[in-house]
Amino acid sequence: MRTAKNDYFLPSKNNSPILHINTCGLQSFDDSLTVIRENGSKDFHLLYVKSGYCTVHFNSEIRKLRAGEFVFYFPNTKQKYIFPSSHSESYFIHFDGSSAEKIINSLDLKEGFHKNDQFFHLYEKFDNLIISSNKSLPRFSVYSISLLLDILYLVSEKKSDYDISNINNLINYITANHDKLIDFESIAKECGQSLHKMIISFKNQTGMTPKQFQEKTRIKIAKDYLVSSNINISKISKLVGYEDQLYFSRVFKRHTGLSPKNYRTNHSS
What we know:
The chain is α+β, with helices and mostly antiparallel strands and 269 residues long. It folds into two domains: 2-156, Jelly Rolls; 167-267, Orthogonal Bundle (Arc Repressor Mutant, subunit A), CATH 1.10.10.60. It has helices at 100-106, 119-133, 138-156, 167-176, 184-190, 195-206, 210-228, 233-239, 245-256, 260-267, and strands spanning 2-4, 20-29, 33-37, 44-51, 53-58, 61-66, 69-73, 79-83, 88-96, 112-115. The strands form two sheets. Strands 1-2-9-4-7-10 form a six-stranded antiparallel beta sheet, covered by helices on one side. It has a four-stranded antiparallel beta sheet with strand order 3-8-5-6, with no helix packed on it. α2 (119-133) packs antiparallel against α3 and α4 (167-176) packs across α7.
């Protein structure tokens, strides 16, 4: 798990923080985890699913949140969420400040469940926030605050999740999650489309099915690793989403005509 804390605050009339990042990070789970905070937290809490899923209880509602979905808690609201014993990742931010509520209201960001199709832009923002919040220099603290504002703005945009009427959004999602097991049927269902219709739309624009595009993306990234790094082939296999190295080698050879080992040998300078 990567976490960071930012104690910088911008001056306000009452000399209290305008925005204050208490902690933020990216958490990954290979084992199940249940989080229950009966009285919530003292600050605002944004939990954004990057991959896999998270089962969230909010008031009397229970939802299984997938990539691109998030829950937003106001202070002192009960929190309960469960990550399964599978590969799941989520970003989180805890923040407060004298102007936090005013900023949230101006963005019309409500407490509870949300969907958003800005995931491709958000990943970079979240990652940069985690990095900058680990820096001690004031200029990085100012940058962290600006990143938090960007994130709040992006997640507050009222757009439907996985807007696959624009296939570029699905392309971006597959690219960003090339190493994950993607449930395309669930994505289609969330959009109110059949899986068949989604596949046809995607193929008409790209010439491939979503699964074929993901496989091609994995092989492209694997080729980059083989040529530009000394990472062993077993590790590369896992990095691009194949737990079985033998299967990875078969897929790689089908695309390139060479085994990963021979490809590395032939393309090394």
